[in-house]
Amino acid sequence: MYKILTLNNISVAGLEKLPRDNYEVASEMTHPDAILLRSFKMHNMEIPSSLRAVGRAGAGVNNIPVDKLSELGIPVFNAPGANANAVKELVLAGMLLGCRNIASAWDYVRNLHGDDAQLNKLVEAGKKQYAGFELPGRTLGVIGLGAIGRSVANMALDLGMNVVGFDPGITVEGAWQLSADVENATSVEAVLSKSDFITFHVPLIDATRNMINSDRLKSLKNGVVILNFARDGIVDNEAIIAGIKSEKIYAYVCDFPNNRLIKEERVYCLPHLGASTAEAEDNCAIMVADQVKDYLENGNIRNSVNFPEVRMARNESSHRLCIVNSNVLNMLGQISTTLADANLNIVDMLNKSKGDIAYTLIDVDQAVNEATVEKINAIDGILGVRAI
Question: CATH number of the domain that 99 lies in?
């Protein structure tokens, strides 16, 4: 029986992927094998010694101590792309909010007074100040071409926009999913200088913090609409406000309100709605539950932010070892020698690494006893061993 601790409400659609005859799921539990969460902040949490995996029902993992878990040999799974459609739709809404002055116009109408004839006169007199501009023929700059960025870029092309994108880390698989009509920029500055709209779809790390700042304001076209549905901190709020006051920036639409932004003209703050749809919550929960289940039962790793992608088919007649170790020399040799000393023959093996972490799946011809597991675990550099 695997024990799953939930630190937030997880969609029932995801929890149903963990059958009750093999999984115990609860919001309070000692000695969990895995943790499922959404926004709960784990940084000050004591990590249970029993923990084997952490699954984030979403894309970002800023609320999870990934480095600490890596040192303990614990993979962190996320759900990239599961909320892509929800965010894509909100980006479209944000572009329209920005270029058509919808929120300001709505606020104007809500504050009108008089009978219908008077309202009609006031509407006709006031509507000119809310005239905007259309999307077709404009250029959208997309910084970050992961699952969400690609979805946004392809949508913009369908709307008749031009698209320029920047992502130095795009994968071959990701590139195949991106329309060939997206122009590839070689730098952030190249995107900024060409775009009428700019949208960010990157994690918050040192390299992405304050990507719009006072220096980069000079690179922007006049009258640009900036959208941030990625993370707070991707743009410098003071630079945004300065850009709006100088009319360099036409509007700013974001998912991260604060007291500095919410009173500003042409700043439209939403209450972190990016993935707030029933469909996105279900998709994220299903994806991460499937991944954690596959890891616990088979040792396979898909969509881990700190471990390599490792998947190996199970042979019903073999017995599986899952081994996590520091990515250093001669680990496989020591592991193989220990198995040979226990008269265990390797049937199949797959080893991959990611940064400082290496992960190995080994199928052997006999059940692995606890003594052999302990011998492997005692090898210097081993972070964790499981016999499935």
Answer: 3.40.50.720
Asked if 118 and 149 sit in the same domain, the reply is yes
Distance CA 89, CA 53 (A): 32
Residue 63 lies in a domain: yes
Whether 349 shows a pLDDT value over 90: the answer reads yes
Question: By the 8 A CB rule, do 298 and 322 touch?
Answer: no
Whether 244 and 167 map to the same domain: the answer is yes
- Strand-pair partners of 5: 26, 35
* Look-up of token digits 């500095």: 260
147 and 265, same domain (yes or no): yes
Residue 90: enclosing H or E segment and its boundaries?
helix 84-100
For 289-306, write each residue's pLDDT tens digit. Answer: 999 999 999 999 999 999
Q: Which amino acid is at 124?
A: E
Same domain, 134 and 21: no
CB 268 within 8 A of CB 225: no
**What DSSP character marks residue 263?**
T
- Mean pLDDT confidence for 81-101: 95
The pLDDT score that the predictor gives to residue 377 is 95
At 210-262, the pLDDT tens digits run 999 999 999 999 999 999 999 999 999 999 999 999 999 999 999 999 999 99
The CATH number linked to 349 is: 3.30.70.260
pLDDT tens per residue across span 267-279: 999 999 998 899 9
The number of distinct structural domains making up the chain is 3
DSSP string, 52-121: -EEEESSS--TTS-HHHHHHTT--EE--TTTTHHHHHHHHHHHHHHHHH-HHHHHHHHHT--S-HHHHHH
pLDDT in tens, 28-69: 999 999 999 999 999 999 999 999 999 999 988 989 999 999
What domain range is 69 assigned to? 1-82+278-307
Asked if 88 contacts 108 with a C-beta cutoff of 8 angstroms, the reply is no
pTM assigned to the model: 0.81
Distance CA 194, CA 217 (A): 13
Q: Is residue 154 part of a domain?
A: yes
DSSP state at residue 208: G
Q: Is residue 312 part of a domain?
A: no
Question: Which residues neighbour 148 within 8 Å (Cβ) at sequence distance 6 or greater?
Answer: 59, 81, 83, 84, 87, 88, 201
Count Cβ atoms below 10 Å from residue 210 Cβ, excluding itself.
Answer: 15
Q: Give the SS3 label for residue 242.
A: helix
